[in-house]
Design a protein that fits this description.
Helix content is 92%, strand content 0%. The chain has helices at residues 3-29, 33-67, 70-93, 97-140. Helix 1 (3-29) runs antiparallel to helix 2 and helix 3 (70-93) packs antiparallel against helix 4 (97-140).
C-alpha cells in the first residue's frame, strides 16, 4: 500500500470516527435513537476498519521479515527440492524428457537455496540462543 493510501485511509477513519461520535452525541442530546445508532455504527465501523488496516500492516511487516529469515529460505529450498524430485519422477514415469529435466533443474535450485541458507540459519539460531542465555543470566542477577 502506498503512503498516500495509508494517509487517506487513516484520515478517512479519523474523520468517520469524529463524525460518528458527533452524530451519536447529537442523537443522545436530541433524544433521537436512530441518529445515535447511526453515529455509533459509523464510529465503530471506522474503528474496525482502522484495526483491520493495522493488522494488514503488521502482516506485511512480518511477511517481509520472513523473506529475510535464513531458516524460512532454507525451508523454501527444501520445498523446491521436493517439487523438483516429484516432477523428475513424473517425467520419468511418463517418458517426458522436458518435465524430467525441469524437475532436475528445480531440485538443483532448491538444493542450492537450502545449502546457501544453511550456515546463515545456524548462525541465526546460535545468536538467538545466546540472546536467550543472556536474558536468563540477567533474570538470575
Amino acid at each position: 500500500m502506498s503512503n498516500d493510501n495509508t494517509n487517506y485511509s487513516t484520515l478517512s477513519n479519523v474523520k468517520d470516527k469524529i463524525v460518528g461520535s458527533a452524530k451519536s452525541a447529537l442523537g443522545n442530546l436530541s433524544n433521537n435513537p436512530e441518529m445515535k445508532q447511526e453515529g455509533d455504527q459509523q464510529y465503530y465501523t471506522a474503528e474496525g476498519k482502522q484495526k483491520v488496516y493495522e493488522q494488514q500492516q503488521e502482516a506485511e511487516k512480518k511477511k517481509e521479515e520472513m523473506k529475510n529469515d535464513p531458516s524460512f529460505q532454507q525451508g523454501q529450498g527444501l520445498v523446491q527440492q521436493i517439487e523438483g524430485a516429484g516432477k523428475k519422477v513424473l517425467g520419468g514415469l511418463t517418458n517426458d524428457e522436458k518435465a524430467k529435466k525441469e524437475g532436475e533443474q528445480k531440485h538443483a535450485e532448491g538444493l542450492g537455496r537450502f545449502n546457501a541458507n544453511a550456515e546463515a540459519a545456524k548462525q541465526e539460531k546460535a545468536k538467538q540462543e545466546k540472546a536467550k542465555g543472556s536474558a536468563g543470566q540477567k533474570e538470575k542477577n
